[in-house]
Design goal:
The chain has 218 residues and is of the alpha/beta class. It has eight helices and eleven strands. Helix 2 runs parallel beside helix 3 and helix 6 packs across helix 8. 33% of the residues are buried. This is Response regulator transcription factor.
């Protein structure tokens, strides 16, 4: 999934991003609400992890504007305020979930995954196609019962191909979902990842190239 983390404490923001990247999510990070709104207007994020007390534009206003835009992005609001009234107020702004600081990173990651499932049509617990079985929760892939060790990017790309259910996925769509905003679209990152993925999945080949369009698992 593509996730935007908005947190003005640099160490905490970096820790959240690292934890989510370990789950094969593409993560962008910013520390203020103004930049957050700019990025939300450009990129299609599945989940927004939003600290409530941030500079430039307050987290409450970021949430209000996002909800008013009709965006499908799900919002997990973070705050140091633990009172029930604060939680109710945050949810009333349109946030989908609420987590108070300090929190366990494992819980945050689980909530992000749950919200991401709500931002798109529900996936089955295990994605299956052409002898492949990909388990997002366990982060495991099997081909015809054989375990296939994949890198985080390979796993993310394969998940998007399986979610397409036989349809062709463009390189641009894969960049959008599996890489953060710092990737250079001209580096050939997608092509190289597909090449490595094919090697690890083995023969006969499963990932087809549709010339001029993208990739698919028929």
């Amino acid at each position: 999934m593509r996730v935007l983390v908005v947190e003005d404490e640099p160490l905490l923001a970096a820790a959240i991003a690292e934890w989510l990247r370990d789950d094969s999510h593409a993560v962008d990070v910013t520390g203020d609400g103004g930049t957050a709104l700019e990025r939300l207007s450009v990129n299609a994020y599945d989940v927004l992890v939003l600290d409530r007390d941030i500079p430039v534009v307050h987290g409450d206003e970021v949430c209000r504007q996002l909800v008013a835009s009709g965006s499908a992005t799900r919002v997990l609001m973070l705050t140091a305020a633990a009172a029930i009234t604060d939680r109710v107020e945050g949810l009333g702004l349109g946030a989908d979930d609420y987590l108070t600081k300090p929190f366990a990173f494992a819980e945050l990651a689980a909530r992000v995954l749950a919200l991401g499932r709500r931002s798109r049509p529900a996936d089955p617990p295990v994605l299956r196609r052409a002898g492949l079985a990909l388990d997002p929760a366990r982060h495991e892939v099997f081909r015809d019962g054989r375990y296939v060790p994949l890198s985080k990017k390979e796993f993310a790309v394969l998940a998007e191909l399986l979610r397409a259910d036989g349809a062709t996925v463009s390189a641009e769509q894969l960049l959008e979902k599996a890489w953060d905003e710092h990737v250079d679209p001209f580096t050939g990152a997608v092509r190289l990842t597909i090449l490595k993925l094919r090697r690890k999945l083995g023969e006969p080949g499963l990932v087809e190239t549709v010339t001029g369009v993208g990739y698919r698992i028929p």
